[in-house]
């Protein structure tokens, strides 16, 4: 039973150790993510499940681990186990593991390819909901909105990216899984919006339930749109 949801972006610059000169620019995003994670576990949960885009569809356990070495610092992260498991390198899992470092409940993760179809994502979400049974589970869903604007001149207007980002922002602000289901995978791919697949997994997991939403942050401080939100059942 999904009892709480948090959606966070996945820039490595969320880590102050990696942000250096950009630390101040990302400070509001960092604070919003910390607030969202606190909200995620405010209602008691038995487990937090991370959903993120990855190189392949896979499941990850508490003993799996990773490092930010490819992003400039040897910063190890894990899901609370003894690091005896497999190594993950997907940015969604690396950032999520860091955000959840102080969460005192078991943590697991699921990755889906960013290219997964809507039907594949929804089916993954339905399996997550079915597997949760009656246990109270919190979902931390990782992903960025449009990144295509980062390829243009800083601050350049991109009407297509703005329209896509506005639809996602409104979906999260309204607690509307149906609006996430309606996102176009081809359009998301063209905009490098890697959050689309995890967001549609979320939509599959939540079915038609109504949600009370709080949008903690929406902005593009690094020419990529970052959204932070939390949902709770009405």
UniProtKB/TrEMBL annotation:
This is Uncharacterized protein. It comes from Actinocatenispora thailandica. It comes from the Bacteria. Gene3D superfamilies: LigB-like.
